[in-house]
Amino acid sequence: MAGEAPDIRGLLAALERPASALEVGGHAVRLTTLHRVYWPADPALGQAAITKRDLIGYLIRMSPLILPHLRDRPLTLFRWPAGIQGRRMLQKHPESPLPPFVESVEIFSATKGRDDTYVLCNNLATLVWLAEHGVLEIHVWHSRIRTRDRGRARSRPGGSAANLAASAVDFPDYMLFDLDPYIYAGSERPGAQPEPSERGIEAVKRVASWLRELLDGMGLRSCVKTSGKTGLHVAVPVEPTLRYDVVREVAKTLSQHLLRAHPGEITTEWDTRKRTGKIFIDFNMNVRGKSISAPYCPRGLPGAPVSMPLAWRELANAEPTQFRIPTVSMRGRRRDPWAALDRPQSLERTLFATGG
After folding, report:
1. 10 within a domain of the structure (yes/no)
2. Is position 45 within any domain?
3. pLDDT at res. 66
4. Which residues of 20-57 are buried (b: 16+ CB within 10 A; e: fewer)?
5. Beta bridge partners of 305
6. I need a surface site. Which of 2, 66, 202, 299 has the fewest CB within 10 A?
């Protein structure tokens, strides 16, 4: 993070005092209805209601880990202004003028023939501002708006299709595998997504381990996190030198290799009716504009689960419900397992060495 480190303890103390604004990094962030319940109490978890104040406090405490993963990435935002029992709103583009401390980027839309504005979160004031506006889920693109190609800055992504194609946002800095268990607990409503179950959790961990072994065999480091739902995200940090379509084809090839090795447990079927009883590997997430839940950020689901980065050695004993806003803290997290994204690998050299 650029600039002076925030006074987290001081901000948390100020948050507890009645005020109409919170001074964050020299910026006054307006606060309202801090008592509003974003996540209702969950008796099954023994968890009290989580308010807007609680969410802001969590984001402030975890900001040293959250902000590096948001920096310079276009955001897709999911808002529940009245909490998760109210209406959900998908927001990709700002609907009103942004405060001066909130950065944004113009990205050309080929379908519209003009630029679209995307919000960035490059400072703690913006993170607090998002929570104030009912953003309970922050999803990030797989590429950043600023990288360098052989020492030269890439073009800006706005203005034309040519600019977009030459810009940093067309070059992902990780290859993603989204693993979703389609193993049902039996308590789901007809047509609903699978609920967490011991069998599903163990199966998705097993497939993630097979994927890691495959990547290790190619000399590619990977990292894993919970999705905040029932699945896992496996990311391979790569140098942003290949376009999304190339990275997606590599992810597809590797996914199909695993499918051939474990056809009884893995599927790449797009038809959800054909996924039942298996782990779905989604390699099609490697597309510009698609996004995943940001590391350490919450989900708008009962219990306030968090998308939690894990060291691979932690995966065996991890359970999705253990990572929630009240249970996740900086304690024991001085080292971020997903800091590996800052150590990119050359996918080109790996493919050349393996004859790909």
Report:
1. no
2. yes
3. 97
4. eebebbebebebeebeebbbbebeeeebeebbbbbbbb
5. 324
6. 2
> Residue 24 and residue 223: Cα distance in Å, rounded?
32
Is residue 236 packed enough to be buried (19+ CB in 10 Å), middle (13-18) or exposed (0-12)? Answer: buried
Q: Sorting pLDDT into bands at 50, 70 and 90, what band is 1? A: very low
The Cα–Cα gap between 33 and 20 comes to: 9
Number of domains in the chain: 1
Q: Which two tokens stand for residue 342?
A: 């800052």
Look up residue 50 and give its two tokens.
């989580």
Q: Does residue 5 belong to any structural domain of this protein?
A: no
- The closest of 144, 187, 195 to 344, measured between CA atoms, is 144
- Provide the CATH number for the domain around residue 144: 3.90.920.10
pTM of the model: 0.94
Query: In 3D, which of 120, 67, 123 has the Cα closest to residue 295?
Result: 67
- DSSP codes joined into one string, 260-309: HH-TTTEE--SSGGG-TTSEEEE-TT-STT-EEEPTT-B-SSTT-BB--E
- pLDDT tens, 169-197? 999 999 999 999 999 888 888 878 888 88
Q: How far apart are CA 154 and CA 110, in angstroms?
A: 19
Amino acid at 6: P
Contact of 116 with 106, CB cutoff 8 Å = yes
**Closest-CA residue to 195 (of 272, 302, 289):** 302
Query: The domain containing residue 128 runs over which residues?
Result: 17-353
321 or 159, which is more confident? 159
Average pLDDT, the chain: 93
Site of tokens 């290790």: 216
